[in-house]
Design brief:
heterodimer, A: alpha/beta, Gyrase A, domain 2, Four Helix Bundle (Hemerythrin (Met), subunit A), B: alpha+beta, Elongation Factor Tu (Ef-tu), domain 3, Arc Repressor Mutant, subunit A, DNA polymerase, domain 1, six-stranded antiparallel beta sheet
């Protein structure tokens, strides 16, 4: 069946609201699973909570309109989600939507194309859309060249070349196996593994991708009774976050995600590190240590100034809790630590603002560092490519390896342009002596 | 003398023969006109049928009731499935064929059709009135009228044979044809292009020391092309393997300037996959040796076809280099190798039915369309023959094969969309739906279409329908049986013990499943044909991939539904890049899917064409 497509229908700029448009057969299922409720009344704006389909964590609370086939722009079952603005929200929706196997991000002009195919637009509209599609393509091309692709097209072209080489080897072995000049020993796995790692590296552009996708990671640290859990709860309660436990240990790590100014922040409350012989506790400590290593920000919490450490890591912020009890401390320690009170809530807003500033700072840093930045669509294609390369490495049947490489190629092709079987054949004929 | 008929087929090669058979099975009165009756069904190049990609085409022809598979089976003197160690999707049946027996089999098949007549004559021109083909005029001046004409004249257009510096016109000296038809075609100013191909010298068998050479035998258990074939017809023969050596290469290197390929006499493009030995040595100078497969031309033939050394060097050089090969020291050349240059029509001028766009009821099939190979020619002949016959009743719709369902469809789609910059040969890599387009399921893909056209005989039809039902039945049963990882061990399958139950159908695709144990454990298998069981195992193996491909087939078909009008004026479409414009103007695609396959046509150009098309359609309505 034809894929269901979705896209951000509104602009990329920062705005109060964004519209996400989804079109195709899967719409009903998607809407039910994202809202955990039955379909809203047709063509009526309805308020709904949206959740990640697997974790059931909340994404956003916003208006949605459901349009059944054929009474929609494309003539197919359609949904428009009027979500809150900001990249973080959309990225969450993106993540949630791509987790449905039959959903994919729309190609340029694809909604209009469907509308035309389904006879939904008339002559005048069609002309208007024609201009629109063309201008979009132009804009996209400009954008692609000037902004995104400057960095990305270089490695993608190289990867594509390497995939074509691998394909040539595989295809030569399939189509010309009776010609005795083709290699018996296919040594493409090494190349592919290298390729996979490279693609993964770009995808792992943690500073940007995970920061915005998964949210900045803030881990609590401190002595027992320093008030970690009270601060944690106080922040999350106020922000109506979903709290979950990371299972598997008796001394669980508790995770909570909030949406603050359009940025995702994930807090982790740890139980603190104490020396122990207990196997289970050791496991808990191991996890905490790992988490501290991966943290973007560590909040080192003390309830008393004498417990404030003098040596700490760069990303470690000192927090002095319970300032409602010891008001005198306030002035004295202002420059050394962030002063909060979990009980009264004083200082928490300030803390969140500071975290928010840090996110902006980091995102900007990546932008100006000329790191390769991929937009969502490209990231998605790269992920597909990487997935298929991985499968090709694991596979033993040559014709199926060929299939995965073709798929991987198609993804890269959607980023930078067409590849043709003639290229693969050309490669075969120039490297192998084939023919009778 | 015949004054009129339904269909005229010109040329009795592989395209012509298959066209005759198809038209005849469609019920039309068919007249085959050839310059030499004795050459009907002649294998003019290598004595083999099938191979990877090509074998797929032969199976498709058989699934549509055609001749090539049956005739190959009847004349096969060595059967071998290529890529047998690889997955079923890329396995290609092939056989060495006895030339004489093949020709005989073809003529026997043709003689079975009561509605086919053969005429030994030379066609002077095609009768065309107001852009509609009405029949042919013979050299004698006689007019034979018909509803449609299929032209399958191979390489005869301006054919020039090169042996060293000697040049001669091809297709005339021995075959008595005139240039009349060629001149006439030129006068139609169809888009033409020039290609080149080559052939090796033919060797005398008893002058070769075959005993000193390695034998290359066929499969122990032959796999036939046709589902009609039940037994092996001939004694099986081996091929022999010889190798060129440094001395051979030196001889050729020293004589390169005598080769028309390198002294400027030939400039047209030859196939990259079928290089001459001169080419191989020049381009792949680092190889120490090249293989020469010595193929027997028949059970009682004294001729050996040395596959791998096609050449156009002068005869004395041919003799010298051939004799430098171990085992061929005293070999006698019966017929020198040569290169042939010829004109072909640019297939972008054709519709997918192989009717030429500019003249109604005139079809082209085979090498004249820029392809190479018997199988490629035969596949086109079949499509042209069916469509030519559909013209008899003006109410019947055109018949096309799609690239999503057949290799023949891939070939024709490639040809009409992209032309033939080199002689077009089939490779499996050309088929994007390769895992579905298999030699083993050609009947499942195509026989229903043949039944609709009523071109499959009754016995074959019944057999096919039973087989199809068997598969559906068996699949249903096997999908319902659930097996735990533990149980699956008894079938030789090792799964991680995740406790998850999988269907028997799902497990059937595992490579190392033990078929004996399987059939023993589930006795219902005994009720079914082994072929159905095997087919289900293959389907299971590729299931996930084929499902995925089907979704892309769906969107391709959506695009195919959007027709582009014949007389579209691309100049009127705004926003087309020059490259897109030129590519579209040349190929004049008939639907959006074909347009999207033309190199140089961008997505933006496609949306413009789409919108323009829709606009026009609305206006007309």
């Amino acid at each position: 069946m034809q894929n269901t497509i979705f896209a951000l229908a509104s602009g990329n700029d920062i705005s109060a609201l964004s519209v996400i448009r989804i079109s195709g057969k899967e719409c009903k299922k998607v809407l039910k699973e994202l809202t955990l409720k039955k379909l809203p009344k047709e063509r009526v704006l309805t308020l709904r909570n949206f959740y990640f389909p697997r974790t059931k964590k909340i994404i956003d609370r916003c208006l949605v309109v459901w349009m059944a086939c054929p009474r929609s722009y494309t003539g197919e079952d359609s949904i428009e989600i009027h979500s809150h603005g900001g990249e973080a929200v959309f990225r969450s929706f993106f993540q949630a939507l791509t987790s449905f196997p039959k959903l994919r991000y729309a190609e340029q002009g694809e909604f209009s194309k469907r509308a035309i195919i389904n006879g939904k637009t008339d002559l005048v509209q069609a002309e208007a859309i024609n201009d629109l599609i063309n201008s979009q393509t132009e804009k996209q091309r400009e954008l692609a060249i000037s902004q995104y692709n400057k960095g990305l097209s270089v490695p993608v072209k190289r990867w594509r070349k390497e995939i074509i080489n691998c394909m040539a080897l595989i295809e030569a072995n399939i189509d010309f196996s009776d010609e005795n000049d083709t290699p018996d020993n296919l040594n493409i796995k090494k190349e592919l593994t290298k390729l996979k790692i490279e693609i993964k590296d770009i995808l792992k552009n943690k500073d940007y991708h995970e920061l915005v996708n998964e949210g900045i990671r803030v881990v609590f640290k401190g002595r027992p009774n320093a008030g970690k859990s009270s601060i944690f709860n106080s922040i999350l309660k106020k922000q109506k976050a979903i709290v979950s436990k990371i299972p598997g240990t008796t001394r669980d790590i508790i995770e909570g995600k909030i949406n603050f100014n359009g940025n995702a922040i994930t807090f982790y409350d740890t139980a603190g590190i104490v020396s122990t012989d207990d196997y289970v506790e050791k496991e808990g400590i191991r996890r905490t240590k790992k988490l501290l290593k991966e943290a973007d920000i560590i909040l080192n919490i003390a309830e008393n100034e004498k417990f404030l450490p003098s040596n700490y890591k760069k990303n470690e912020w000192l927090i002095l809790n319970k300032i409602d009890i010891n008001k005198k401390l306030k002035k004295k320690l202002k420059n050394r630590a962030i002063l909060v009170s979990a009980k009264t809530g004083v200082g928490l807003q300030n803390l969140l603002d500071k975290i928010s500033d840090e996110i902006i700072k980091r995102t900007k840093k990546v932008n100006t560092k000329k790191n390769i930045i991929v937009n969502l669509r490209q990231a998605n294609e790269l992920k597909e490519a990487e997935k298929n390369i991985k499968k090709a490495i694991q596979e033993t049947s040559e014709e199926i390896i060929g299939e995965h490489l073709r798929e991987a190629n198609r993804s890269l092709e959607r980023i930078i342009g067409n590849i043709d079987i003639e290229e693969v054949l050309g490669n075969i004929f120039s490297s192998f002596c084939i023919g009778k | 003398m015949i004054k009129s008929t339904d269909i005229i087929i010109i040329g009795g090669g592989h395209a012509g023969v298959e066209a005759v058979s198809a038209s005849a099975r469609m019920g039309a009165r068919v007249l085959l006109i050839t310059v030499d009756k004795n050459k009907i069904g002649e294998m003019s190049c290598n004595p083999a049928i099938g191979g990877i990609g090509k074998g797929h085409i032969v199976r498709e022809i058989d699934a549509l009731g055609g001749l090539m598979g049956k005739c190959a089976d009847k004349s096969g003197i060595q059967f071998k499935v290529l890529n047998a160690s690889k997955g079923p999707a890329v396995r290609g049946p092939r056989c060495q064929a006895d030339r004489v027996k093949y020709k005989k089999a073809v003529n026997e098949e043709l003689s079975k059709y009561k509605n086919v007549k053969v005429l030994n004559a030379v066609v002077e021109k095609i009768k065309i009135e107001n852009g509609i083909c009405k029949g042919v005029v013979l050299e004698s001046g006689d007019l034979i009228s018909s509803k449609s004409v299929v032209l399958t004249t191979g390489t005869f257009l301006n054919g020039v044979i090169h042996i060293g510096n000697k040049k001669s016109s091809a297709g005339r000296i021995n075959e008595g044809s005139s240039n009349g038809l060629g001149d006439f075609l030129k006068s139609l100013s169809l888009p033409m292009s020039r290609l080149k191909t080559g052939t090796p010298p033919r060797l005398k068998k008893n002058t070769i020391n075959l005993n000193s050479l390695e034998k290359d035998k066929g499969d122990y258990r032959p796999e036939f092309f046709s589902l009609d074939t039940k037994k092996i017809y001939n004694k099986q023969l081996p091929c022999h393997v010889a190798w060129t050596n440094k001395e051979t290469h030196q001889i050729i290197k020293n004589s390169l300037k005598k080769s028309p390929l390198y002294n400027g006499s030939i400039s047209s493009r030859g196939p990259r996959y079928c290089p001459s030995i001169e080419d191989k040595i020049k381009r792949f100078y680092d190889r120490e040796r090249h293989r020469v497969m010595l193929e027997p031309e028949g059970l009682n033939s004294h001729i050996i076809y040395p596959n791998g050394i096609s050449t156009s060097l002068p005869l004395d050089v041919q003799e010298k280099f051939v004799r430098s090969i171990q085992g061929l020291e005293k070999v006698k050349i019966l017929q020198p190798g040569y290169a042939i240059e010829y004109d072909h029509i640019d297939p972008r001028a054709l519709k997918k039915t192989l009717e030429i766009k500019s003249i109604k009821n005139l079809f082209f099939a085979g090498q004249i369309n820029g392809t190479t190979g018997y199988e490629e020619a035969a596949g086109q002949g079949l499509v042209a023959g069916i469509n030519a016959a559909l013209k008899v009743d003006s109410n019947r719709k055109e018949w096309e094969l799609d690239r999503t369902e057949s290799y023949i469809g891939v070939m024709i789609d490639d040809l009409v969309a992209r032309g033939a910059p080199e002689p077009y040969r089939m490779f499996t890599s050309r088929a994007e739906y390769r895992l579905y387009l298999r030699a083993d399921n050609a009947d499942l893909r195509l026989s229903d279409k043949a039944i609709k056209l009523n071109i499959l005989n009754k016995e074959r039809k019944d057999k096919f329908l039973r087989y199809k039902d068997d598969i559906i039945d068996l699949k249903k049963i096997c999908e319902k049986i659930l097996i735990s990882p533990n149980e699956s061990k008894s079938l030789n399958i090792n799964l991680s013990s995740d406790g998850k139950k999988r269907s028997l159908y799902g497990l059937m695709g595992f490579e190392n499943i033990n078929r004996e144990k399987l059939v023993k454990k589930y006795s219902f298998f005994f009720k079914y044909d082994l072929r159905a069981i095997k087919q289900l195992m293959i389907q299971s193996k590729y299931d996930t991939h084929v499902i995925k491909q089907k979704s892309s087939i769906f969107s391709y078909k959506q695009d195919k539904k959007i027709k582009i009008p014949k007389n579209i004026d691309y100049k009127k479409i705004g926003g087309l890049s020059r490259e897109s414009f030129e590519a579209l103007e040349l190929a004049k695609p008939r639907d959006l899917a074909s347009a999207s396959r033309i190199p140089g046509v961008t997505a933006a150009a496609l949306s413009s064409v789409l919108l323009f098309t829709k606009k026009r359609v609305k206006k007309v309505v």
